[in-house]
Amino acid sequence: MRILIDNDTGIDDALALGYLCALDHVQIEAVTSTPGNIDVEQVAANNRALLKLCGKPDVPVFIGAREPLEIPLVTTPETHGPQGVGYATLPDPGPDASASNGAVDYWIQAARANPGELTVLLTAPLTNFALALRREPGLPWLLRKVVIMGGAFYYQGNTTPTAEWNTHVDPHAAKEVFAAYTEAAEQGLESEKLPTVCSLDTTERFEMQPEFLTKLAEDAGCEEPELVQAGDAEGTLSKASNPLVRYLSDALRFYFEFHRHYDQGYIAHVHDYFAAGVAAGTLEYETRPATIDVETESQLLFGSTVADFRGLWGKPANAQVVSRNDPQAGFEELVKRLGALARKATIDS
Known about the structure:
Blueprint: E1 2-7, H1 11-21, E2 27-33, H2 40-53, E3 61-63, H3 77-80, H4 103-113, E4 118-122, H5 127-135, H6 139-142, E5 145-149, H7 165-169, H8 171-186, E6 196-198, H9 200-203, E7 207-208, H10 211-220, H11 243-261, E8 268-269, H12 271-280, E9 285-294, E10 305-308, E11 319-325, H13 327-348
Parallel strand pairs: 1-2, 1-4, 2-3, 4-5, 5-6, 6-11
Antiparallel strand pairs: 7-8, 9-10, 9-11
Helix pairs in contact: 1-2, 1-11, 1-12, 4-5, 5-8, 10-13
């Protein structure tokens, strides 16, 4: 499976990217970087360093837009840390062997050269995808599959009471993307080519507990147990001998602490990992067709996603919204794959 990733790495983006690096049946074509959790230059640096850590240094990393379409960029150092990966320290990725710019050009060229072959995973604001659709309206037909992490429907938002983070950062881009797919659906686009949307309604069911890191270290063959506990001093760093386990532990500890600061418990919602599993075809889920639109005018509801599941607008469905998933099976899959990748990284190094 050939996957193009667009992200704003980001702790859960990093987990998703690491997971895809661990899958033998996945070929990561490129990673395109979008501003969101942090500025886009840092996103690209994080992607390059993580790919190197995961044994994929040759995957090209491109930079696209440097700000949302119509509003100023807002980042979240309080959520993901000043460099986007919590307390983790990433290795120096070395000289950038790929083009630093040109994400949108790459999208269009790759899709035209490989019609029906590329799966796109979008775990960031939809800025780059919207710009690509402006220049190549045929992308919905050219791509094999599109998976979007974003939105909230029958669920509380995580940025405002009604809005999810990725959509709220660039709601105008999200609105353009869904409008493009409405137009494509009206022109006969097959339902299986509509975006699969992983909203907070189902991604927040992927609620990681600190014990996950203990299991990961065991599976990776670490000699000492990896214990991340709610009673630890904030900022405690991992001493794991395995570099991938140490990186993920330090990143996720920050995420656990963030969720606790907002009275959600010492847990982490790993939204983007679930979306990655949907894109890779490794996690089970069910969907419902819907017509999605995004609010960009109301100050009260700015960035909110609205899904018409009943056809009340009289428009064709422009998305498939995930309605069911299996977090327990998902975390078992994640431990197994990342544990194997961590062991391999140790051997290769």
